[in-house]
Amino acid sequence: MTRTWQDIAKAKQAALSDSIPPEWRIPTDIMPPDSQLDVTSFPRDSGFFTKDELKYTTAKIPEILQQIHSKAWKAVDVAQAFSKRAAVCHQLTNCLSETLFPEALERAKFLDDHLQKTGNPIGPLHGLPVSLKDNFNIIGKDSTLGFVSWVGVPATYNTVLVDVLLKAGALLYVKTNVPTAMMIAESVNNTFGRTVNPLNRKLTSGGSSGGESALIAFGGSVLGVGTDIGGSLRIPAACTGIFTLRPSFGRFPTANAKSGLAGQEAVNSVNGPMARTLDDIEFFAKNVVNSEPWKLDPKCLPISWRPVDVGRKLRLGVIWNDGIVVPTPPVRRALKHAVEKLQEAGHEIVDWEPELHQEAMDLLHGKFKHVGYTGVFNILDYSAVSFPSGIYADSELDEAETGIKTLSQMDAQIQAECEYFSQAGSEKANAGLDNAGAVHGMPVSLQLVASRLEEEKALAMTRVVLEGLGVAVI
Description:
The protein contains 15 helices and 14 strands. By secondary structure, the chain is α+β, with helices and mostly antiparallel strands. It has an 8-stranded mixed beta sheet with strand order 1-3-2-8-10-9-13-14, sandwiched between helices. The chain has a two-stranded antiparallel sheet with strand order 4-5. The longest helix is centred in the first third of the chain and has 19 residues, at 75-93. It has 2 domains: 21-295, Amidase signature (AS) domain (Amidase signature (AS) enzymes), CATH 3.90.1300; 315-469, no CATH class. Helices cover 35% and strands 14% of the residues. The protein is globular. Helix 8 runs parallel beside helix 9 (234-240).
């Protein structure tokens, strides 16, 4: 009898649930009710985690590595703590697609034994748990990309980045959920269903790297790797208020990753780190680039990491809007706040007219135009950082504005879908969010963009900007 796609998906979901050890399954009496939207405090408040598990999973990358390499912590204990926290996050947000818990613990034991015998770590990431988006192939594991037809088709080779991370000593313990074909700005598919935001489970964690975004925001990962072809790193990072770097194509290896659009090379997909601190983003970038990945991936450029000093005073161009679609009220408020703070800190601000954005949008197809604030930089292949602004959506401040005009027919169409506007150039009192209360308290992120192959500069400038905004970088 032929199985339906529903049967296949149900079996895959059951197998994923069964891969979680019984002792890591949330007891009924402490399971947060569906009405509890923010579940990020569960690890701390539930009593389900030991003090050591909380210590390991709240530590930053430098501390984790220092403690493991000094033999104060065991890699196996750190791996188990992050695996448990990831399993709990999945039960609350549906963020995972594959688990590698036994493999991760076995590798952690190997790493501990190696360190004990030799006194040396095998690489700079020795013992560091790293989570991966679903499309990174790992031998023996599915990379479904949400397609039910790819269930039960395990990879026979590793993605090059996987080999780079393993050689550096990383522990790979989970893969995370994506939208079908990785081409939607939220993470939902017929195989695993929908991933939700741990900060507010009525909201999306974004896409296409939304499983990573949810897991990192919950503390189930200290460092994850996603991909970006139109905003798939920056959108989910913005949804949960974490950091990410969208590099130019060729800085990080992409060979042997699975694609939902194989053969499409007009705009190349890139992969990049996602983490809770800017320092952790730079740590990944520096170590991957300095591993000389161009020796494994012919499309990777032979450019070592280049430290850059951007100075203490920056000249920053500000795009208030792209001339096509009006940003939402929280974003407008965050951008205004950032400009004021940076000017107070002595930085020069230049209003940047988006004269070429319409031309870029004309190159994008169909509904893909709706990610113009990220997609345009994929077309240009610019380096970009998404970072938390320190501003949060506010139901009172962001509820309504008057005199806001639509910028284009596309803007009118988008706003009409939200019941704001009906035609281009019209004005309406409720030019705020469709329901400002629904996103009250959510972090608002901004994007800093540098030119092509200027990842070092983008990160250095972001560091200076964050200092001006009073936002932590570590």
